[in-house]
């Protein structure tokens, strides 16, 4: 356990279903382990359903708030887990899109893993960014104006006034979590 993120607040956003289990639980655990206050907000609040490999139902997790009840101004960073259903739902969720844009406009860190960058496409914030994601999301990102896509466990891009951290899959979570902690610590 470390305390180098004591006093820092991180928001993790999800839908209420289709969330890749480890992409939600591992960042929550790692960032809290570094001393951050981490809030999990979901589309409807309450119970969220995680999955393993997008197909096997796993744990349910209680979220702390509804997306519409939180403000980007209250947090230092935003984390968007993957899961195809989760990411596809978030890209259509007005509250999620508003939150993403609040973080970007404030010049804060936004981190997305696996299919999570889909939500960034619909928020209109990836133009000019170089990032990574699950391989099937690459073409969508390029078509939406990303500056480039790289096949690496974690990619940090500081461009257009804000920091974007992305990773490909649950296998990349250790590097993803450490990159978030480092960026938030400053």
Nearest-angstrom radius of gyration? 14 Å
Task: Please give the share of residues in helix.
Answer: 25-40%
Please tally the helical runs, counting DSSP H or I stretches of 4 or more residues. Answer: 6
The secondary-structure element order is EEHEEEEEHHEHEHEEEH
- Count all strands and give the number: 12
* Unreliable stretches covering 5 or more consecutive residues: none
Give the overall average pLDDT.
96
Name the strands of the widest sheet in spatial order.
6-3-1-7-8-12-11
Largest sheet: 7 strands, mixed
Name the quaternary structure.
single chain
SS-based class: alpha/beta
Strand content: 25-35%
The rounded distance between the terminal residues' Cα atoms is 18 Å
Query: Any idea what the shape is?
Result: globular
Region (Disordered): 36-57
InterPro entries: C56_PfpI-like, Class_I_gatase-like, DJ-1/PfpI
Organism: Pseudomonas lurida
Pfam families: DJ-1_PfpI
Description:
It is a single chain. The strands form three sheets. This protein has a seven-stranded mixed sheet, sandwiched between helices. The two termini are 18 Å apart. The mean pLDDT is 96. By secondary structure, the chain is an alpha/beta fold. β11 and β12 (162-167) form a beta hairpin. It contains six helices and twelve strands.
């Amino acid at each position: 356990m470390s305390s180098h993120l004591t006093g820092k607040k991180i928001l993790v956003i999800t839908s209420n279903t289709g969330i890749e289990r480890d992409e939600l639980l591992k960042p929550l655990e790692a960032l809290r382990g570094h001393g951050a206050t981490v809030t999990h907000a979901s589309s409807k609040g309450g119970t969220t359903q995680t999955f393993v490999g997008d197909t096997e139902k796993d744990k349910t997790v209680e979220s702390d708030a509804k997306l519409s009840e939180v403000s980007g101004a209250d947090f230092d960073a935003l984390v968007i887990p993957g899961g195809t259903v989760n990411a596809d739902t978030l890209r259509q969720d007005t509250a999620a899109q508003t939150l993403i844009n609040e973080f970007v406009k404030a010049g804060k860190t936004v981190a997305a893993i696996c299919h999570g960058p889909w939500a960034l496409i619909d928020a209109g914030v990836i133009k000019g960014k170089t990032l990574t994601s699950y391989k099937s999301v690459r073409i969508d990102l390029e078509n939406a104006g990303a500056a480039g896509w790289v096949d690496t466990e974690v990619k940090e891009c500081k461009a257009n006034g804000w920091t974007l951290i992305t990773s490909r899959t649950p296998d990349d979570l250790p590097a993803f979590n450490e990159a978030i902690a480092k960026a938030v610590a400053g």
